[in-house]
Design brief:
Layout: E1 2-6, H1 11-22, E2 26-31, E3 45-49, H2 55-62, E4 67-70, H3 83-98, E5 102-106, H4 120-130, H5 132-148, E6 153-158, E7 161-163, E8 173-176, E9 187-189, H6 190-199, E10 209-214
Parallel strand pairs: 1-2, 1-4, 2-3, 4-5, 5-6, 6-10, 7-9
Antiparallel strand pairs: 8-10
Helix pairs in contact: 1-6, 2-3, 3-5
């Protein structure tokens, strides 16, 4: 497939680019600083310097792509951000113009408080207060996808805390439409998240939904 990967200079994005290339996909990535990807040299990788918040710019580089995968996110967990919602509101119109209908993006567990989940109190009184600013913007992104993007086959992948450990090599557990999965550990290697994102391309089971994922306990 020909994939456009955004957020590729972050740790999860780097894992995703490397794995996508290993699987034989053609990858186009839009970055602010191409030098951050200088360590990856591959005939199927095209690195483009550009603005992820520009619909017009993104459209040019989405033409001919089969899907968009976004690892965009904030490194500062205490500062207000619009990177999740703002980028998505630029990406989706670019997708429509380029006639691309599939996007897979990542957020995290507990974007919303789910009263049906066992750790609802933990999410409400501990996790959300600490991570309220990025979580609030993730929730804006989720609402935008749910309310205004029914013509888009989106999947919002929700992992727990990310680590830089090597892949576990295990099949991940998941819950479709949930904010949390009690079947999983509270941490997950970025490499496993990247693998799951690519697996989402092979099925329509997660279309127009969020899916909480994790390494089995």
């Amino acid at each position: 497939m020909k994939l456009t990967i955004l957020g590729s200079t972050g740790n999860t994005g780097l894992e995703l680019v490397k794995l996508a290339l290993d699987e034989g996909h053609e990858v186009v990535t839009v970055v602010r600083n191409p030098a951050k990807l200088s360590s990856i040299q591959h005939e199927k990788l095209q690195v483009v310097e550009g603005d992820i918040f520009s619909t017009e710019f993104l459209q040019t580089h989405l033409d001919g792509c089969d899907a968009v995968l976004s690892c965009l996110g904030s490194n500062n967990l205490t500062r207000a951000t619009t990177i999740y919602s703002g980028s998505m509101k630029a990406i989706v119109p670019a997708m429509r113009a380029a006639k691309v209908s599939r996007i897979i993006t990542i957020a995290t567990w507990h974007v919303k408080v789910d009263p049906n989940d066992d750790p609802g109190r933990m999410a409400r009184w501990v996790i959300r207060p600490i991570l309220s600013k990025p979580l609030n913007d993730m929730a804006v992104m989720a609402k935008y996808l749910e309310d205004e993007c029914q013509d888009i086959d989106y999947t919002m992948v929700l992992p727990p805390q990310l680590t830089n450990s090597a892949s576990t090599g295990k099949d991940l557990v998941f819950d479709i439409g949930r904010q949390f999965t009690s079947k999983a550990a509270y941490t997950i290697p970025r490499a496993d998240v990247a693998k799951f994102m690519l697996q989402c391309l092979k099925t329509s089971d997660f279309n127009k939904n969020c899916v909480a994922i994790g390494v089995p306990k």
